[in-house]
Amino acid sequence: MSNHCLICMNQLTISISWRSLFTKPQQQNICASCRRKLEVIGEDVCRKCGRPQEIGGEICPDCKRWTKSGSDHLAKNIACFTYNEFAKDLMALYKYRGDYAIAAVFSGELIKRWSYIAKEVTIPLPISAERRTERGFNQTEGLLKLANIPFTTQLRREHTEKQSKKTRKERIDQEQYFFVEERDTVASKEVLLIDDIYTTGATLHLAAEALMKSGAKSVSSITIFR
User: Fold this and answer.
1) pLDDT tens-digit profile of 135-167?
2) How far apart are CA 127 and CA 149, in angstroms?
3) Which element (helix H / strand E) includes 212?
4) Closest by alpha carbon to 30, among 111, 141, 140, 108?
5) What is the DSSP secondary structure assignment for residue 176, as one 8-state letter?
6) Count of beta carbons in the 10 Å neighbourhood of residue 173
7) Which three-class secondary structure state does DSSP give residue 202?
């Protein structure tokens, strides 16, 4: 039984053993070489944002600044992988070149983290209508669809300049551009946001603020990269 790595297109070979004849084989979509380049985030992280650090459980300087600013509406973020150079290449393929199948590479880790975090509503971080037309899809919705995770899309976003074109200060200081269409869907609920990358945290904190002001009980998030 064989197929091809979604990233490098080298052939994958699934080894057959007596045990595998009686159990369902685990689906493989990337080769061992590419898998090693994806750095799974372990336990030594900031307990607020999931940023890898030497002492796990400590709050990182970025999260301390969010707390002091009074704009800390996000309970916590859990991240799957380190945003290294390989990860940047993957996201360029997926997000900007439309290689939709790449989302399946992250499904296993996303499902694992989604399964054990408390939530009543799962919401992919929205993109504006203009951005969806430009890309042809919402990358966060794609992540959830290929992982077979149910979600709702009551959170909306106004069109803004791309985050990558803004400075760190501009991202943190920007005005609210998220809004909730139907408040009843989030009122008194534990909401879980899904996004691709946590950088400054500004986008997720703004989304969490909109949800909390619409009556959400709490807002946490999972990101593929940190």
Assistant:
1) 889 999 999 999 999 999 999 998 876 666 657
2) 19
3) helix 202-213
4) 108
5) P
6) 11
7) helix
